[in-house]
């Protein structure tokens, strides 16, 4: 389908890697998704929206590993989301895979998400993870380990846009969400909406950060 990227590609700051990932293909087994939307998350103590902001925990440990590894987390008690780690080991940053177009294994993807339009198969981070069959078992997989997970050069192209990240309550103005302009698989932008139960949610998140994924 396309040439493999190298680990060095991810050995750069996330806000540099993220726009360069657009048009690249993440393939796991038979299904490949061409990325059309991603978000960058930065270093501990610097990016309040990042899972590593308060330091290393059992949950986010993969983010502190070498570049090119998959970090999968469970969110809101319902969904998995997937990221690829950037920068050298010990720094703690990653790019969230937000949306894409299925370009390989379409029949398999349709079976995994029955009744969903092709446009929507990977239109959003939880949908993307479901379409690629990413779950707890895939947390920590090496994109360059010679296994079923690969990142291919793909076909970068189209006008790249940037803006605030979706749904984050802190660091919301940081323009580290990147997408291909006009692509129908890009997910709708949603700003964070404070809710009365946010205090309970934040407490649950802090508790989860101190337990294994």
**Secondary-structure element string:** HEEEEEHHEEEH
Q: How does the overall form come out from the CA principal axes? A: globular
- Count of DSSP-assigned helices: 4
CATH topology: 3-methyladenine DNA Glycosylase, Chain A
Measured distance between first and last alpha carbons: 33 Å
Secondary-structure-derived class: alpha+beta
Q: What proportion of the residues is helical, as a percent range?
A: 10-25%
Mind summarizing the main beta sheet? 8 strands, antiparallel
Strand count: 8
What amount of the residues lies in strands? 15-25%
Task: Give the C-level CATH assignment.
Answer: Alpha Beta
Low-pLDDT sequence parts:
204-213
CATH superfamily: Methylpurine-DNA glycosylase (MPG)
CATH architectural grouping = Roll
Q: Write down the Rg.
A: 16 Å
How many separate domains?
1
Mean pLDDT metric: 90
């Amino acid at each position: 389908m396309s040439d493999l990227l190298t680990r060095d590609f991810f050995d750069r700051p996330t806000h540099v890697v993220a726009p360069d990932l657009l048009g690249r293909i993440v393939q796991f087994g038979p299904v490949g998704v061409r990325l059309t939307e991603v978000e960058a998350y930065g270093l501990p103590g610097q990016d309040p929206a990042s899972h590593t902001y308060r330091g290393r925990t059992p949950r986010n440990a993969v983010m502190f590993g070498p570049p090119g590894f998959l970090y999968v987390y469970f969110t809101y008690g319902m969904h998995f989301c997937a990221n690829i780690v950037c920068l050298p080991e010990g720094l703690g940053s990653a790019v969230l895979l937000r949306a894409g177009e299925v370009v390989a294994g379409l029949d398999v993807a349709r079976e995994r998400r029955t009744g969903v339009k092709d446009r929507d198969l990977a239109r959003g981070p939880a949908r993307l993870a479901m379409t690629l069959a990413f779950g707890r078992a895939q947390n920590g997989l090496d994109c360059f380990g010679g296994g079923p997970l690969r990142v291919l050069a793909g076909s970068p192209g189209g006008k790249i846009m940037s803006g605030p990240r979706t749904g984050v309550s802190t660091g919301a103005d940081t323009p580290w969400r990147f997408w291909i302009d006009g692509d129908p698989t890009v997910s709708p932008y949603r700003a964070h909406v404070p809710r009365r139960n946010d205090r309970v949610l934040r407490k649950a998140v802090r508790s989860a950060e101190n337990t294994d994924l």
